[in-house]
Amino acid sequence: MSGVVDLAAVKAAGEAKQKAEQARAEAARQGGVPGAGAGPLVFDVDEAGFELDVLQRSAEVPVVIDFWADWCEPCKQLGPLLERLAQEYAGRFVLAKVDVEANQLLFQQFGVQSIPAVFAVVAGQALPLFQGAAPEAQVRQVLDQLVAVAEQRFGIVGAPAGEGEGVPAAPQAPATPYDSALGAAHDALDAGDLGGAVRAYKNVLSDDPGNPEAKLGLAQAELLQRVQGMDPQQVRKAAADAPGDARAQIAAADLDLAGGHVQDAFGRLIEAVKRTAGEDRDAARVRLLELFEVIGPDDPRVTAARTALSRALF
Fold first, then answer.
1. Which end of the chain is more exposed for a tag (fewer CB within 10 A), N or C?
2. Is 276 among the catalytic positions?
3. Dihedral sign for Cα atoms in the order 233, 192, 211, 202
């Protein structure tokens, strides 16, 4: 599950584009449309079915996850609204409902702090959307942004399903000159060649420094490269024995993030910045900024950690 929130997007982003194109081509051949029609628009999901029902399906259509519980009154307001909008959007996203009482592991691994909480999974990458029973106008705005991000970043279009005529699918993303290089990076990851993946992502960034897929892929591939071959028990013991050793804390933070413990990794490095000075302090700060790239700038945990880092520095 460590890859659910933090690491799956490296490989899944490229695969998602390919699957989306294949789905469109097959639908065109059969005279239909691709998208969410292959399954229900609203469904319950548990830990056992998460990979199939959410991760795999997220390569074809954005999956919105509603974390709820029977005792939660705001959940009873938000849940029906999300279900109604899932039908209205007619396949541009699907809604997975997670009962947190029965699925504590998912609740913890997504870092949910209160419910209702709404996330999305696009091409295997989790995106926090909002918490609480938001008004309908705000929910619609978030969903519109989600559909746009799914198309622009991953080439995924949730097409109308069933009787949803008149609900336009987002325009198909044009091919870019870097698709072959990004494909080479994904192939290298498949083969376990992390060095090759890093080089491929750097090749893209040398020509297009702002390419979001390459930036994310490079940050995650470099993280995987760093933790490869680490002895987790030894690394964590060294960090526990020497709280003021910046290098030990940096190595442990890499393990934290690779294991999906995002806030632990950020907190560890912020504490290292507070406790150290000079080159050690700067090394902890730089690694923290690199880990921000792994998660993405829009994640609220990154925003909170940036604020905490500023306080630690100044």
1. C
2. no
3. positive
